[in-house]
């Protein structure tokens, strides 16, 4: 098998410049991202994504941290898992994308697990209902489907947002090459322990005990298996 | 193959809220976790888990750090490996779980290795005896079995605790989907070097040597292979 | 299958000493690397690579960080992805290499994804045109091809630089064993989330909220999926 | 396939206690490790390993950091790769091991790559000659062979040290289960980027640029591909 990626310019890696040159409209992706981040009180926060631009749509993938709540003991515990936000936005011309028409889909940890274990010939589909368990249940339904392109060459991603109230259905879809999906899979695998907060639980090391004193037990430990 | 996860609400990711709304009884999972952590003097410690709720039981998985002891040289060395604690607790109604009836099983590094290398059609079983090498050996026996659901769709986990003294046998079991097991496998693979303390051994970097002075050998190095 | 690596001396791991002893010419690899780094204002920066020396050429692989730009909110965002720089340089004698004749090829994140998902019998080829979108488009064309050696024993890497203006074509190639490619694949997989900036987005943790105050929302979170 | 690990006691995870109780002789593993570390000026350094105890021998695996040297620019560069040290020591009774008869084998990055890509039915063998390129070349030869146990159940590790001067040949070998080899593979994969220094090159982040000033180029970047 031979896979080609023809004459990608070095400047294509200058994401901003490319978009500055090629995009039009009053709301650019660049601007949108700045606005997006500015909505939050996030001094010191860093934002990173992986974005794939295709003929009819683009897809951006961004990890989102879990949140912790304080325990009375002074420690803290994850009270809400993080996620990986997928943002789809349509092309409105050659290499022009309208970020204001974006569709969002937040992957839960288990949905991330589903994607990273997807075999070359397998499909998966996720359904989200923002109003579930409320009186508006079923008014808006989002689904994300991932289906193989065939010949182990990648996947086709499709997001459908059905609004029963407004009687509208919006669809955005794009092909993801095997190489691009490998980047997504690798980034998702990296992100997964982080959106569960395991990196913080595992790297928040206590200072070493001093040689003079017997260390107090400062962590839940395997012996608690036997403490019942 | 088509895998579906139907209309998961966004609020399902708000673990606390879901449980606040749905759980009953004087001892909630929320409360139990707080109590669990409060037992330890753990100011500054962070806790994270991955929890799967099923019809008859739930399973929570939590990484536990290794402990270090000081060396006379001033450095420190792992004196007890960490583990990954599995906590099973039974359902006592629809989406209600009784955390007070929990069963614990602490996976050793090698047991973690067994789980993450488990093939789609393979089984494994671990046996723990809390009283081994004591006069009470054999009084309580715990076993954890992991068996395939078939068609590469996940595994069935079963914990059995046999108490020969009290003449009781307690069993808790639940199915784990392929996506959920992938989350577990990814989180376990991430945790493994950490519960062995390798991350601390590998990232506890010395300051760079100054250009003026020849660096002293401050680490055990490959040449010690030849020093006999 | 039996793979042998015959009597590698321990001193071969002393990269500098080996080269000091064996290399000649006024411009050594050692010197070149120092010069390379000295070109940058990089006090405090650390440089690491993975280098494979073969009969006709050597290949060095070095990760390059993304750059961030400040947002008005006070946070920052990746404005240029990092990459993994491949440096090929020709042998000019037995274990002598001329670093001044080096050829560079910077792998983008998606090209990294292509390499790490490459099957044992698969090939891939990347094309770069430094002058794309300028009036000099097509004057210089670089291509990197990766083709299997056969029998799952590794790959053959070939870089070709075609200069239409100078009417020159330069080629450098070398075989990479399965073990060496595994090092490259493992290092590339490790590097990928970092060159996208995901490690910085995921580990730049906020301080824990205090128990007294309800935490403000300080991060983009999954609920924003529903905010349209 | 069914894999069993029968009644492992929880106390087996208390490595020190087990050895305190079971080992004899004036030089215990515990003591040896302390001595080993005390040889170095290593205040603040942390040591971690993964050790497998079998009937005729034990094997301990320990990661070793690379060393850096200062550049004139103020940055630093790896001047010697790290490694993963394998330490074999013989059993001298039931669960008694003589650490003074240890044999060492330091795996280079490429040898680590060979091990982590080893297929279930594949073998590999490494040869080290501590005196290579000296007048003593060939006097001592070390070899490490890894051969499959069959049925995807693990590997047999054998170290042979042939001393032509002393006319001695020492051999130590032990079986490694699939689960144990998975721990080794996972720990080696984690260690590999660290022994190459890539983690330090990739996480030694510069402070974010200020919004007012255009960021200076402070890193080697992909554009240098085009600078020739």
TrEMBL record, chains A, B, C, D:
Location of region: Disordered: 202-228
Keyword annotations from UniProtKB, A to Z: Transit peptide
Annotated Basic and acidic residues bias: 215-228
Source organism, top-level taxon: Eukaryota
SUPFAM superfamilies named in the record: ssDNA-binding transcriptional regulator domain (SSF54447)
GO terms, molecular function: mRNA binding; single-stranded DNA binding
GO CC annotation: DNA repair complex; mitochondrion
UniProt keyword Transit peptide present: yes
Family of this protein: Belongs to the Whirly family.
Protein name as catalogued: Uncharacterized protein
